[in-house]
Amino acid sequence: MEYGRLIIGSDPDCKIDFEVKNLDSTRVRPVAQLIATAIIFATLLVMGMQFTVHHFTSKESLIFPTVILSIVLIYHLLIDRKLIANKNNLLVTGSLILFATYYVLNINRDAPLKLEYITYFLTIVLLFTAIVFFKNRIVDKRMWIVFVFIYANVFFLPILLSINKLIAANSNGIIAFLLLFFCLINLKEKNIILKSLNIYTTILLVITLFTATSRTAMMAFFIVVFTFFAIKYLYKYIFYIVTSLILLSPMITGLYIYLKHTSIGQSLNDLSIQVTGKNFFSGRDRIWSEAVENVLQNSAFWTGLGVNNEFQELGGYLHNLYVQVFFQSGFIGLVLVGALLFSIAFAVGKAKVIDTDFRILLGYFTAILFLQVFEGHLIYKFEIISVLMWIIIAFLIRKASHRLPDYTALEKES
Fold first, then answer.
1. Would you say 70 and 99 are in contact if contact means Cβ atoms under 8 Å apart?
2. pLDDT exceeds cutoff 80 at 113
C-alpha cells in the first residue's frame, strides 16, 4: 500500500512533497473490524441460546453489544468514511428507519419506552446500515463460515447425537435454514480448510433442517431452490415478481383462514400429517381472526392497540407479520411496512449483476416473504431469526447495488 509520495526537484534545496495517509486510521480499522465481528457473533450466539436447553438469556442482553457496535460503526462512519453511495440503498434504509421508529414509539404508547425494543431495532438498523453502505465489510464474508461452523456444532450436533433434547423444533429448523445461506454463498471458497468446514456444516444444517420437521423451514428451503433456478430465465421481471409476492402475502393470510372449512383444506391437512406428523391448520386462523376483531372492536384501525401485552395464550406473538403489525400499529404501521418491502423490491429490481450469489439471495428473500405469512419474525424482538433475516436482506440490497464496469450487459451464467 502506498502511504506517501516523495518528489525531489533539481533545486539544491530539494522540494519535498510528502503526502501521508492517516496511518492511525489504517491500523485501527482492522481492530475495529475485529471488535465488531466478535460482538456480532457473540450476540448471535447468545440470542440463539433461547432456543436450546442452555437458555439463560434476557432481553437486556442486547444492551452492551449494541453500545459497542454503535461505537465501532461511528468510527467507520467518521474516520474510515468509505461509503457506497446509492439512492436505492438510501430509500430502503430510510424506509426501515421510518418504520422502526414508528413501531417502537407506538408500542406501549401509554407507558415509558422499553429499552429492549430500542436496543433490538437499533441493533438491526446498525447492522443493516453497515452492510449496505460501508465499502470495507464489517464482517469478512469468509468469517461467516467459522461462525456457522461453531453455531451448528455447539447447538445442533448435540441434538442430532441425542445428547441434548430438541426444543423449539420449528424455530431451530428456521435457524438452520437461515444459517445455510452463509454456507451457500461460500461454496466457491478456495481455501481447502475453510472449504472443508463449509461443506461439512452445509450437510449438518440440511440434516438439522429436515430432522426438526419444521414445515415452514422445509417449504422455505424448496422455495430457495426453485427461485434459484427460475430467476435465471425470469431476471427481467424481478421487480414485478417480488412486488406480486408482497401483495399476495396478506391474501394468503385470508386464504389460509378460508381453506380450513373446505375439502381442499382437509386434503392439505391430511397431507401435512402424513409428511410432518403435524396439522396444517395449527390454530393460526383463529388467532388471526381474533386479533383483527380486537383491533376493530376497540376502534383502533389507524394506530392499532399500541400494546404488546399477552394476546390470549401466545404472549402477544401472532405468527404473521401483517396481522402482528396491524394489531400493534394499525393501518399506519401496515402502510409503513408495505413501503419498506416495496422499497426493497424496487432496489432489487434495479440489480444488474445476476450471478450465483444474487440468485441465492433473491431465493432467500422470497422464502423470507413466505415465512412472514406464518411467523412474522422480522419484527419479533430479541430473536436471532429476526437478526439473521435482516442481515440477509442487507446482503441482498448491497448486492443489488453492484454494477458491471461497462454497464452494457447483465452477468449471466451459461
1. no
2. no
State which residues form the domain around 123.
23-400
State the pLDDT at residue 82: 78
Grid cell of 117 as nine digits? 425494543
Angstrom distance (rounded) from CA 44 to CA 65: 10
Which grid cell sits at 374? Answer: 406464518
Write the pLDDT tens digit of every residue in 297-313: 989 899 988 876 544 44
C-alpha cell at 147: 461462525
Evaluate whether residue 104 is within a structural domain: yes
3-state secondary structure 324-365: HHHHHHHHHHHHHHHHHHHHHHHHHHCCCCCCHHHHHHHHHH
DSSP state of 366: H
Angle at 261 between CA 260 and CA 263, to 5 degrees: 95
- Mean pLDDT throughout 190-198? 95
Any domain includes 146: yes
Rounded Cα–Cα distance for residues 359 and 218 (Å)? 19
- Number of domains present in the structure of the chain: 1
Residue 376: alpha-carbon gap to chain centroid: 12
Inter-residue long-range contacts of 19-23, CB under 8 Å, 24+ positions, other chains counted: 22/79
CA-CA distance, 347 to 92, in Å (whole number)?
Answer: 8
pLDDT digits (tens, 9 = 90+) for 368-391: 999 998 888 888 766 789 999 999
| 8 A C-beta contact, residue 336 and residue 102 | yes
* Whether residue 404 has pLDDT greater than 50: yes
Residues linked to residue 297 through DSSP beta bridges, in sequence order = none
How far is C-alpha 244 from the geometric centre of its chain's CA atoms? 20
Is 286's pLDDT higher than 80?
no
pTM here is 0.85
Rounded to whole angstroms, the Cα distance separating 194 from 145 reads 7
Is 108 buried (19+), middle (13-18) or exposed (0-12) by CB count in 10 A? middle
Residue 4 vs residues 22, 54, 96, 309: alpha-carbon distances, Å: 10, 53, 41, 60
Residue 246, in any domain of the structure: yes
Q: Which residue has the cell 414485478?
A: 240
Identify whether 127 is part of a domain.
Answer: yes
Indicate if the pLDDT at residue 125 is higher than 70: yes
